[in-house]
Amino acid sequence: MSDASRKHERLALQGGMKAVSGFEGRGQPKIGPEEFLSIAERFGLSERAMAGIRAVLDEEDFGEGPFLANYYSGLKETKVEAFQRVARETFGVPHAIGVCNGTAALHAAFVAVGVGPGTEVICPAIGFMATAAAVVMAKGVPVFCDVDASLSMDPAALEAAITPRTVAVAPTCVMGSVPDMPAIMAVARGHGLKVVEDCAQSCGGSVGGRYVGTFGDAGCFSISAYKIIGGGEGGLLLAGDEGVWARANQLMECGGLWRPDRFAPPRWAGELFAGTNYRMSELEAAVDAIQLAKVHDKVRRFRAVKQRISRQLPPCREIAPQRLNDADGEVGYTLRFFPESIDLAVRIVEALRAEGVGCSTRGRNPGRDWHIYHDMFPITERTGWTDIRCPYECPHYTGRGGAVRYGRGDCPVADDLYDRAVTVHLNQWLTDADCDNVAAALNKVFDAYCTPDAGAAPWPAGGMRHDA
Fold first, then answer.
1. Nearest alpha-carbon partner for 202 in 155, 151, 252
2. pTM for the full predicted model
3. Contact 324/331 with Cβ under 8 angstroms?
4. Are 181 and 299 part of one and the same domain?
Protein backbone atom coordinates (compact mmCIF):
# COMPACT_ATOMS: atom_id res chain seq x y z
CA MET A 1 0.00 0.00 0.00
CA SER A 2 1.39 3.37 -1.01
CA ASP A 3 1.85 6.23 1.42
CA ALA A 4 -0.87 8.19 -0.41
CA SER A 5 -3.49 5.43 -0.13
CA ARG A 6 -2.55 4.76 3.52
CA LYS A 7 -3.39 8.37 4.39
CA HIS A 8 -7.01 7.85 3.25
CA GLU A 9 -7.53 4.48 4.98
CA ARG A 10 -10.16 4.64 7.70
CA LEU A 11 -9.18 3.81 11.27
CA ALA A 12 -10.77 0.79 12.89
CA LEU A 13 -12.34 3.22 15.34
CA GLN A 14 -14.11 4.79 12.36
CA GLY A 15 -15.35 1.50 10.95
CA GLY A 16 -12.31 0.55 8.92
CA MET A 17 -10.63 -2.83 8.87
CA LYS A 18 -8.31 -3.82 11.68
CA ALA A 19 -4.67 -3.72 10.82
CA VAL A 20 -4.05 -6.78 13.03
CA SER A 21 -6.79 -9.41 13.01
CA GLY A 22 -4.75 -12.17 14.64
CA PHE A 23 -1.33 -13.76 14.99
CA GLU A 24 0.11 -16.81 13.28
CA GLY A 25 2.80 -17.35 15.87
CA ARG A 26 1.90 -19.77 18.65
CA GLY A 27 4.28 -19.90 21.59
CA GLN A 28 4.85 -22.49 24.25
CA PRO A 29 3.69 -21.95 27.85
CA LYS A 30 6.29 -20.25 30.04
CA ILE A 31 5.61 -22.87 32.73
CA GLY A 32 4.48 -26.16 31.23
CA PRO A 33 5.02 -29.93 31.13
CA GLU A 34 8.76 -29.91 31.85
CA GLU A 35 8.30 -27.80 34.94
CA PHE A 36 5.47 -30.06 36.11
CA LEU A 37 7.68 -33.11 35.60
CA SER A 38 10.48 -31.45 37.54
CA ILE A 39 8.13 -31.10 40.51
CA ALA A 40 6.94 -34.70 40.15
CA GLU A 41 10.55 -35.86 40.01
CA ARG A 42 11.21 -34.13 43.35
CA PHE A 43 8.73 -36.56 44.94
CA GLY A 44 11.09 -39.42 44.08
CA LEU A 45 8.71 -41.21 41.70
CA SER A 46 9.91 -44.21 39.72
CA GLU A 47 10.87 -43.96 36.04
CA ARG A 48 7.72 -45.92 35.18
CA ALA A 49 5.52 -43.45 37.08
CA MET A 50 7.31 -40.49 35.50
CA ALA A 51 6.75 -41.95 32.03
CA GLY A 52 3.05 -42.29 32.79
CA ILE A 53 2.83 -38.68 33.94
CA ARG A 54 4.64 -37.50 30.82
CA ALA A 55 2.18 -39.43 28.64
CA VAL A 56 -0.75 -37.71 30.36
CA LEU A 57 0.86 -34.29 30.03
CA ASP A 58 1.45 -34.81 26.32
CA GLU A 59 -2.33 -34.99 25.90
CA GLU A 60 -2.97 -31.77 27.79
CA ASP A 61 -3.14 -28.24 26.44
CA PHE A 62 -1.39 -25.99 29.00
CA GLY A 63 -2.37 -22.84 27.14
CA GLU A 64 -0.20 -20.05 28.47
CA GLY A 65 0.63 -22.08 31.57
CA PRO A 66 -0.12 -21.30 35.22
CA PHE A 67 0.77 -18.02 36.91
CA LEU A 68 2.54 -19.10 40.10
CA ALA A 69 2.39 -15.85 42.06
CA ASN A 70 -0.22 -14.72 44.56
CA TYR A 71 -1.33 -11.68 42.53
CA TYR A 72 -2.93 -11.45 39.07
CA SER A 73 -3.58 -15.18 38.91
CA GLY A 74 -7.21 -14.87 37.86
CA LEU A 75 -8.16 -17.57 40.36
CA LYS A 76 -11.10 -17.27 42.71
CA GLU A 77 -8.74 -18.27 45.55
CA THR A 78 -4.99 -18.51 45.13
CA LYS A 79 -3.03 -21.12 47.03
CA VAL A 80 -1.58 -18.39 49.25
CA GLU A 81 -5.09 -17.18 50.03
CA ALA A 82 -6.10 -20.78 50.76
CA PHE A 83 -3.13 -21.18 53.13
CA GLN A 84 -4.08 -17.98 54.96
CA ARG A 85 -7.71 -19.10 55.19
CA VAL A 86 -6.70 -22.47 56.65
CA ALA A 87 -4.50 -20.63 59.17
CA ARG A 88 -7.35 -18.36 60.26
CA GLU A 89 -9.67 -21.35 60.63
CA THR A 90 -7.07 -23.49 62.40
CA PHE A 91 -6.05 -20.92 65.01
CA GLY A 92 -9.29 -18.94 65.25
CA VAL A 93 -7.74 -15.55 64.44
CA PRO A 94 -8.99 -12.78 62.15
CA HIS A 95 -5.69 -12.16 60.33
CA ALA A 96 -3.01 -14.44 58.86
CA ILE A 97 -0.21 -13.73 56.40
CA GLY A 98 1.70 -16.38 54.46
CA VAL A 99 5.37 -15.41 54.09
CA CYS A 100 8.49 -16.96 52.60
CA ASN A 101 9.90 -18.23 55.92
CA GLY A 102 9.64 -17.91 59.69
CA THR A 103 12.44 -15.35 59.96
CA ALA A 104 10.56 -13.08 57.57
CA ALA A 105 7.46 -13.42 59.77
CA LEU A 106 9.50 -12.37 62.81
CA HIS A 107 11.03 -9.37 61.03
CA ALA A 108 7.61 -8.19 59.86
CA ALA A 109 6.13 -8.73 63.33
CA PHE A 110 8.84 -6.74 65.13
CA VAL A 111 8.45 -3.86 62.71
CA ALA A 112 4.67 -4.07 63.10
CA VAL A 113 4.79 -3.69 66.91
CA GLY A 114 7.17 -0.73 66.86
CA VAL A 115 10.68 -2.14 67.23
CA GLY A 116 13.26 0.30 65.86
CA PRO A 117 16.33 2.39 66.74
CA GLY A 118 16.75 2.92 70.47
CA THR A 119 14.52 0.02 71.50
CA GLU A 120 15.12 -3.36 73.13
CA VAL A 121 13.34 -6.69 72.76
CA ILE A 122 13.67 -9.38 75.42
CA CYS A 123 14.44 -12.80 73.91
CA PRO A 124 14.88 -16.12 75.74
CA ALA A 125 18.38 -17.52 76.21
CA ILE A 126 17.38 -20.76 74.47
CA GLY A 127 15.83 -20.75 71.01
CA PHE A 128 17.13 -20.42 67.47
CA MET A 129 19.09 -17.26 66.67
CA ALA A 130 16.54 -16.14 64.06
CA THR A 131 14.44 -14.51 66.82
CA ALA A 132 17.22 -12.21 68.01
CA ALA A 133 18.49 -11.68 64.45
CA ALA A 134 15.07 -10.43 63.35
CA VAL A 135 15.16 -7.90 66.21
CA VAL A 136 18.46 -6.57 64.86
CA MET A 137 17.04 -6.47 61.31
CA ALA A 138 14.28 -4.27 62.70
CA LYS A 139 17.03 -2.01 64.17
CA GLY A 140 16.27 -3.06 67.74
CA VAL A 141 18.65 -4.57 70.31
CA PRO A 142 17.99 -8.08 71.67
CA VAL A 143 18.37 -8.60 75.42
CA PHE A 144 18.60 -12.22 76.55
CA CYS A 145 16.46 -13.46 79.42
CA ASP A 146 17.13 -16.64 81.40
CA VAL A 147 14.89 -19.70 81.24
CA ASP A 148 13.37 -21.98 83.85
CA ALA A 149 13.16 -25.79 84.00
CA SER A 150 10.81 -25.78 81.01
CA LEU A 151 13.68 -24.30 78.91
CA SER A 152 11.30 -21.46 78.06
CA MET A 153 11.44 -17.82 79.14
CA ASP A 154 11.28 -17.49 82.92
CA PRO A 155 8.58 -14.92 83.80
CA ALA A 156 10.55 -13.81 86.87
CA ALA A 157 13.71 -13.28 84.82
CA LEU A 158 11.62 -11.43 82.25
CA GLU A 159 10.46 -8.96 84.88
CA ALA A 160 14.06 -8.28 85.90
CA ALA A 161 15.22 -7.73 82.29
CA ILE A 162 12.80 -4.90 81.49
CA THR A 163 14.32 -1.43 81.03
CA PRO A 164 12.90 1.93 79.89
CA ARG A 165 14.06 0.94 76.37
CA THR A 166 12.08 -2.30 76.27
CA VAL A 167 9.20 -2.23 73.77
CA ALA A 168 8.52 -5.94 73.19
CA VAL A 169 8.95 -9.46 74.52
CA ALA A 170 9.58 -12.51 72.29
CA PRO A 171 8.71 -15.77 74.11
CA THR A 172 9.86 -18.79 72.11
CA CYS A 173 8.62 -22.37 71.97
CA VAL A 174 11.45 -24.92 72.34
CA MET A 175 11.32 -28.22 70.44
CA GLY A 176 7.65 -28.98 70.94
CA SER A 177 7.23 -27.45 74.40
CA VAL A 178 5.28 -24.28 75.18
CA PRO A 179 6.12 -21.24 77.36
CA ASP A 180 4.07 -20.15 80.36
CA MET A 181 2.17 -17.68 78.21
CA PRO A 182 -0.39 -16.48 80.81
CA ALA A 183 2.41 -15.48 83.21
CA ILE A 184 4.51 -13.92 80.44
CA MET A 185 1.53 -11.96 79.14
CA ALA A 186 0.78 -10.68 82.65
CA VAL A 187 4.32 -9.33 83.02
CA ALA A 188 4.38 -7.83 79.52
CA ARG A 189 0.99 -6.17 79.73
CA GLY A 190 1.78 -4.91 83.23
CA HIS A 191 4.61 -2.90 81.67
CA GLY A 192 2.72 -1.92 78.50
CA LEU A 193 4.91 -4.11 76.29
CA LYS A 194 4.07 -5.77 72.98
CA VAL A 195 4.45 -9.53 72.62
CA VAL A 196 5.71 -11.36 69.53
CA GLU A 197 5.49 -15.13 69.92
CA ASP A 198 8.01 -17.31 68.09
CA CYS A 199 6.17 -20.60 67.72
CA ALA A 200 8.36 -22.09 65.00
CA GLN A 201 9.09 -25.27 66.97
CA SER A 202 5.61 -25.91 68.37
CA CYS A 203 3.00 -25.26 65.69
CA GLY A 204 -0.31 -26.52 67.06
CA GLY A 205 0.77 -26.33 70.69
CA SER A 206 -1.46 -24.72 73.30
CA VAL A 207 -1.53 -23.46 76.87
CA GLY A 208 -4.72 -23.90 78.82
CA GLY A 209 -6.61 -24.74 75.63
CA ARG A 210 -5.45 -21.63 73.76
CA TYR A 211 -3.05 -21.95 70.85
CA VAL A 212 0.44 -20.52 71.09
CA GLY A 213 0.68 -17.73 68.54
CA THR A 214 -2.67 -16.26 69.61
CA PHE A 215 -1.72 -14.82 73.02
CA GLY A 216 0.47 -11.93 71.88
CA ASP A 217 0.20 -9.13 69.35
CA ALA A 218 1.69 -11.38 66.67
CA GLY A 219 2.40 -15.09 66.40
CA CYS A 220 5.17 -16.27 64.06
CA PHE A 221 5.72 -19.74 62.65
CA SER A 222 8.23 -21.49 60.44
CA ILE A 223 6.19 -23.72 58.14
CA SER A 224 9.11 -25.61 56.68
CA ALA A 225 10.71 -28.96 55.96
CA TYR A 226 12.58 -28.69 59.27
CA LYS A 227 9.39 -28.49 61.33
CA ILE A 228 6.49 -30.89 61.86
CA ILE A 229 4.39 -28.83 59.42
CA GLY A 230 5.68 -27.64 56.04
CA GLY A 231 7.30 -28.89 52.87
CA GLY A 232 10.08 -26.47 51.95
CA GLU A 233 10.68 -22.91 53.17
CA GLY A 234 7.56 -21.11 54.32
CA GLY A 235 6.30 -18.97 57.18
CA LEU A 236 3.15 -17.67 58.82
CA LEU A 237 2.23 -14.59 60.83
CA LEU A 238 -0.96 -14.43 62.92
CA ALA A 239 -2.46 -11.23 64.29
CA GLY A 240 -5.60 -10.37 66.19
CA ASP A 241 -5.37 -6.63 65.56
CA GLU A 242 -5.90 -5.16 62.09
CA GLY A 243 -3.30 -2.45 62.69
CA VAL A 244 -0.56 -5.00 63.44
CA TRP A 245 -1.64 -7.01 60.39
CA ALA A 246 -1.49 -3.91 58.18
CA ARG A 247 1.97 -2.87 59.37
CA ALA A 248 3.30 -6.40 58.97
CA ASN A 249 1.88 -6.48 55.44
CA GLN A 250 3.51 -3.15 54.71
CA LEU A 251 6.94 -4.54 55.60
CA MET A 252 6.59 -7.83 53.73
CA GLU A 253 4.60 -6.63 50.70
CA CYS A 254 7.10 -4.27 49.12
CA GLY A 255 5.69 -1.10 50.61
CA GLY A 256 1.98 -1.33 49.86
CA LEU A 257 1.10 -4.00 47.29
CA TRP A 258 -1.29 -5.56 49.79
CA ARG A 259 -3.69 -2.60 49.81
CA PRO A 260 -6.99 -2.54 47.87
CA ASP A 261 -5.74 0.51 45.93
CA ARG A 262 -2.05 -0.23 46.16
CA PHE A 263 -0.77 2.99 44.63
CA ALA A 264 -3.03 5.34 46.59
CA PRO A 265 -1.74 7.90 49.12
CA PRO A 266 -1.72 6.89 52.81
CA ARG A 267 -5.14 6.24 54.29
CA TRP A 268 -3.90 7.02 57.79
CA ALA A 269 -0.79 8.50 59.33
CA GLY A 270 2.09 6.03 59.27
CA GLU A 271 0.37 3.52 56.98
CA LEU A 272 3.05 3.61 54.29
CA PHE A 273 6.78 3.03 54.68
CA ALA A 274 9.40 1.30 52.57
CA GLY A 275 9.21 -2.46 52.79
CA THR A 276 10.66 -5.56 51.20
CA ASN A 277 9.33 -8.70 49.49
CA TYR A 278 8.68 -11.62 51.82
CA ARG A 279 5.77 -13.05 49.84
CA MET A 280 5.01 -16.76 49.90
CA SER A 281 5.04 -18.48 46.51
CA GLU A 282 2.08 -20.36 45.10
CA LEU A 283 4.04 -23.62 44.95
CA GLU A 284 4.99 -23.41 48.62
CA ALA A 285 1.44 -22.44 49.60
CA ALA A 286 -0.02 -25.34 47.61
CA VAL A 287 1.92 -27.74 49.83
CA ASP A 288 1.57 -25.83 53.09
CA ALA A 289 -2.18 -25.31 52.88
CA ILE A 290 -2.52 -29.10 52.90
CA GLN A 291 0.17 -29.50 55.56
CA LEU A 292 -1.37 -26.99 57.95
CA ALA A 293 -4.73 -28.73 57.76
CA LYS A 294 -3.01 -31.85 59.17
CA VAL A 295 -1.54 -30.14 62.23
CA HIS A 296 -4.19 -31.24 64.75
CA ASP A 297 -3.83 -34.92 63.86
CA LYS A 298 -0.03 -34.74 63.91
CA VAL A 299 0.04 -33.06 67.30
CA ARG A 300 -2.40 -35.58 68.76
CA ARG A 301 -0.22 -38.46 67.60
CA PHE A 302 2.94 -36.95 69.06
CA ARG A 303 1.22 -36.23 72.39
CA ALA A 304 -0.19 -39.74 72.61
CA VAL A 305 3.26 -41.26 71.99
CA LYS A 306 5.00 -39.09 74.57
CA GLN A 307 2.33 -39.50 77.21
CA ARG A 308 2.24 -43.28 76.86
CA ILE A 309 5.99 -43.42 77.36
CA SER A 310 6.08 -40.86 80.19
CA ARG A 311 3.43 -42.69 82.21
CA GLN A 312 5.72 -45.71 82.45
CA LEU A 313 8.76 -43.86 83.82
CA PRO A 314 9.42 -43.83 87.57
CA PRO A 315 10.89 -40.82 89.41
CA CYS A 316 14.64 -41.10 89.95
CA ARG A 317 16.83 -39.24 92.41
CA GLU A 318 19.48 -38.29 89.81
CA ILE A 319 17.06 -37.09 87.12
CA ALA A 320 14.83 -34.03 86.80
CA PRO A 321 12.30 -34.24 83.96
CA GLN A 322 11.76 -31.11 81.89
CA ARG A 323 8.99 -29.05 83.39
CA LEU A 324 5.98 -28.80 81.08
CA ASN A 325 3.89 -25.66 81.24
CA ASP A 326 1.02 -27.66 79.76
CA ALA A 327 1.53 -31.40 79.34
CA ASP A 328 -1.71 -31.64 77.38
CA GLY A 329 -0.88 -28.62 75.24
CA GLU A 330 2.72 -29.15 74.19
CA VAL A 331 3.39 -30.78 70.82
CA GLY A 332 5.62 -33.36 72.47
CA TYR A 333 7.95 -34.61 69.75
CA THR A 334 10.82 -34.87 72.23
CA LEU A 335 11.10 -36.25 75.73
CA ARG A 336 13.70 -34.29 77.66
CA PHE A 337 15.24 -34.64 81.10
CA PHE A 338 18.22 -33.33 83.07
CA PRO A 339 20.62 -35.80 84.70
CA GLU A 340 22.42 -34.38 87.71
CA SER A 341 25.73 -34.08 85.80
CA ILE A 342 27.02 -33.87 82.25
CA ASP A 343 28.97 -37.11 82.77
CA LEU A 344 25.79 -38.95 83.76
CA ALA A 345 24.00 -37.48 80.75
CA VAL A 346 26.72 -38.84 78.45
CA ARG A 347 26.56 -42.32 80.00
CA ILE A 348 22.75 -42.42 79.74
CA VAL A 349 22.80 -41.37 76.10
CA GLU A 350 25.45 -43.96 75.25
CA ALA A 351 23.41 -46.68 76.93
CA LEU A 352 20.10 -45.63 75.37
CA ARG A 353 21.62 -45.61 71.89
CA ALA A 354 22.93 -49.12 72.48
CA GLU A 355 19.37 -50.13 73.39
CA GLY A 356 18.10 -48.72 70.07
CA VAL A 357 16.67 -45.41 71.30
CA GLY A 358 17.52 -42.24 69.34
CA CYS A 359 18.69 -39.53 71.72
CA SER A 360 21.33 -36.83 72.20
CA THR A 361 23.12 -34.58 74.69
CA ARG A 362 25.74 -31.86 74.25
CA GLY A 363 28.41 -33.57 76.33
CA ARG A 364 31.52 -32.29 78.03
CA ASN A 365 32.98 -30.45 75.00
CA PRO A 366 29.96 -29.40 72.94
CA GLY A 367 30.22 -27.75 69.56
CA ARG A 368 28.84 -24.31 68.87
CA ASP A 369 25.07 -24.05 68.66
CA TRP A 370 22.94 -21.09 67.58
CA HIS A 371 20.12 -22.30 69.84
CA ILE A 372 21.94 -21.03 72.96
CA TYR A 373 22.48 -17.31 73.42
CA HIS A 374 26.23 -17.25 74.12
CA ASP A 375 27.04 -18.97 70.81
CA MET A 376 25.03 -16.54 68.65
CA PHE A 377 28.10 -14.69 67.40
CA PRO A 378 26.30 -12.58 64.77
CA ILE A 379 24.48 -11.10 67.79
CA THR A 380 27.02 -11.29 70.62
CA GLU A 381 29.82 -9.70 68.59
CA ARG A 382 27.57 -6.63 68.20
CA THR A 383 28.67 -6.02 64.63
CA GLY A 384 26.68 -4.86 61.64
CA TRP A 385 27.17 -4.82 57.90
CA THR A 386 29.06 -1.51 58.20
CA ASP A 387 31.51 -0.07 60.71
CA ILE A 388 28.76 2.07 62.24
CA ARG A 389 27.76 -0.93 64.43
CA CYS A 390 24.07 -0.15 64.27
CA PRO A 391 21.89 -0.75 66.26
CA TYR A 392 24.20 -1.43 69.22
CA GLU A 393 26.06 1.89 69.10
CA CYS A 394 23.31 3.92 67.48
CA PRO A 395 22.97 7.32 69.19
CA HIS A 396 19.24 6.65 69.53
CA TYR A 397 20.22 3.68 71.70
CA THR A 398 23.28 4.91 73.56
CA GLY A 399 21.57 8.26 74.11
CA ARG A 400 18.91 6.43 76.11
CA GLY A 401 21.51 4.69 78.26
CA GLY A 402 21.74 1.53 76.17
CA ALA A 403 25.03 -0.36 76.48
CA VAL A 404 24.30 -4.06 75.99
CA ARG A 405 27.06 -6.65 76.36
CA TYR A 406 26.78 -10.40 75.90
CA GLY A 407 28.72 -13.30 77.40
CA ARG A 408 28.37 -16.79 78.79
CA GLY A 409 27.19 -16.54 82.38
CA ASP A 410 24.54 -13.93 81.67
CA CYS A 411 21.85 -16.64 81.86
CA PRO A 412 23.18 -19.29 84.28
CA VAL A 413 20.10 -21.53 84.28
CA ALA A 414 20.23 -21.81 80.49
CA ASP A 415 23.99 -22.45 80.63
CA ASP A 416 23.48 -25.30 83.08
CA LEU A 417 20.38 -27.02 81.73
CA TYR A 418 21.22 -26.82 78.04
CA ASP A 419 24.55 -28.60 78.43
CA ARG A 420 23.29 -31.55 80.49
CA ALA A 421 19.87 -32.03 78.91
CA VAL A 422 19.13 -35.42 77.37
CA THR A 423 16.71 -35.34 74.46
CA VAL A 424 14.89 -38.49 73.35
CA HIS A 425 13.55 -38.06 69.83
CA LEU A 426 10.01 -39.35 69.31
CA ASN A 427 8.08 -40.38 66.22
CA GLN A 428 4.38 -39.73 65.77
CA TRP A 429 3.91 -43.12 64.10
CA LEU A 430 5.09 -45.26 67.02
CA THR A 431 2.62 -47.97 67.92
CA ASP A 432 1.63 -48.77 71.49
CA ALA A 433 4.12 -51.64 71.39
CA ASP A 434 6.85 -49.29 70.12
CA CYS A 435 6.13 -46.86 72.95
CA ASP A 436 6.26 -49.66 75.50
CA ASN A 437 9.62 -50.80 74.13
CA VAL A 438 11.05 -47.28 74.35
CA ALA A 439 9.78 -46.96 77.92
CA ALA A 440 11.31 -50.34 78.76
CA ALA A 441 14.66 -49.21 77.34
CA LEU A 442 14.55 -46.00 79.39
CA ASN A 443 13.71 -47.90 82.56
CA LYS A 444 16.45 -50.44 81.87
CA VAL A 445 19.04 -47.65 81.62
CA PHE A 446 17.65 -45.74 84.60
CA ASP A 447 17.83 -48.93 86.70
CA ALA A 448 21.51 -49.23 85.79
CA TYR A 449 22.54 -45.63 86.48
CA CYS A 450 19.95 -44.05 88.78
CA THR A 451 18.20 -44.53 92.10
CA PRO A 452 14.40 -44.96 92.20
CA ASP A 453 12.96 -42.39 94.56
CA ALA A 454 9.24 -41.85 95.12
CA GLY A 455 10.04 -38.40 96.47
CA ALA A 456 11.85 -37.28 93.31
CA ALA A 457 10.24 -35.13 90.62
CA PRO A 458 7.61 -37.16 88.73
CA TRP A 459 7.40 -37.40 84.95
CA PRO A 460 4.66 -35.03 83.71
CA ALA A 461 2.39 -37.16 81.57
CA GLY A 462 -0.79 -35.14 81.19
CA GLY A 463 -4.30 -36.47 80.80
CA MET A 464 -4.80 -36.29 77.01
CA ARG A 465 -7.00 -33.20 77.25
CA HIS A 466 -8.68 -32.30 73.96
CA ASP A 467 -9.57 -28.64 74.26
CA ALA A 468 -7.36 -26.88 71.70
1. 151
2. 0.93
3. no
4. no
